[in-house]
Amino acid sequence: xxxxxxxxxxxxxxxxxxxxxxxxxxxxxxxxxxxxxxxxxxxxxxxxxxxxxxxxxxxxxxxxxxxxxxxxxxxxxxxxxxxxxxxxxxxxxxxxxxxxxxxxxxxxxxxxxxxxxxxxxxxxxxxxxxxxxxxxxxxxxxxxxxxxxxxxxxxxxxxxxxxxxxxxxxxxxxxxxxxxxxxxxxxxxxxxxxxxxxxxxxxxxxxxxxxxxxxxxxxxxxxxxxxxxxxxxxxxxxxxxxxxxxxxxxxxxxxxxxxxxxxxxxxxxxxxxxxx
Length: 276
Ligand SMILES: O=C(O)C(=O)C[C@H](O)C(=O)CO
Ligand SMILES: [Zn+2]
Fold this sequence. Notes:
It is built from two helices and 24 strands. It has about 280 residues and is mostly beta strands. The protein has a single domain, classed as Jelly Rolls (Sandwich), CATH 2.60.120. The strands form five sheets. It has a seven-stranded mixed beta sheet, with helices on one face. It has a seven-stranded antiparallel beta sheet with strand order 2-21-18-23-15-14-13. The protein is globular, with a radius of gyration of 18 Å. Zinc ion binds near residues 196, 201, 243 and 267. Belongs to the KduI family.
């Protein structure tokens, strides 16, 4: 498993562009026919992707976890950002269309991923944190999620937030997970921005045109930097960092968090005029 060791705000301020990318960005995941995992030392996050084609892919335990099976002490969120597919958990199969989400509880032993059509494979995004209790493995369909509308056309940030794994939705120990879709012509996400020292956050950008990029903002509000991010790439945001972005064309993104609390609204808002 790849290891990401987070930098603190002191080291961050001296980092070059390649160092920032190496530390906070995951590229090269979502390989057709592959299952990739990365371990982040912050909040013990595991970030992964599974793109099954002609055969099923199995989520195995990893030496770094010192666990008999992947979910022995962990919970796992799965969001499908590709074609139709299925996830089988201890013999029970869940069919996931695009943007359907599955929560897999601690103690689940045998987990595998399949695609309905190898030519249009499912693309399962995986986000996992340690769990202290077992919650039921359950899925929610995109069409059954209630969207929260934010922003406006005049500020180019009209968007809908879909919460899937959270206190009033699919229950979990610490994982909070959902996604945001932008309205046509609105390309700013999470603007005005915020930080939340109590939780780290992970963004997966998807449906980014291969010729385009999302300019992702990170860092303390008074010392921001940017990462240009392509399709199906992942940015990790420590609690001290803002996480916002603007696309050169439309896109979607999955956000997920772990840490001290599960209160989605627990954010320290930053006024746009205070950003540096
Ligand atoms: O567009 C947004 O605003 C978001 O999606 C914000 C994220 O959900 C977030 O940062 C939650 O802490
Ligand atoms: Zn946030």
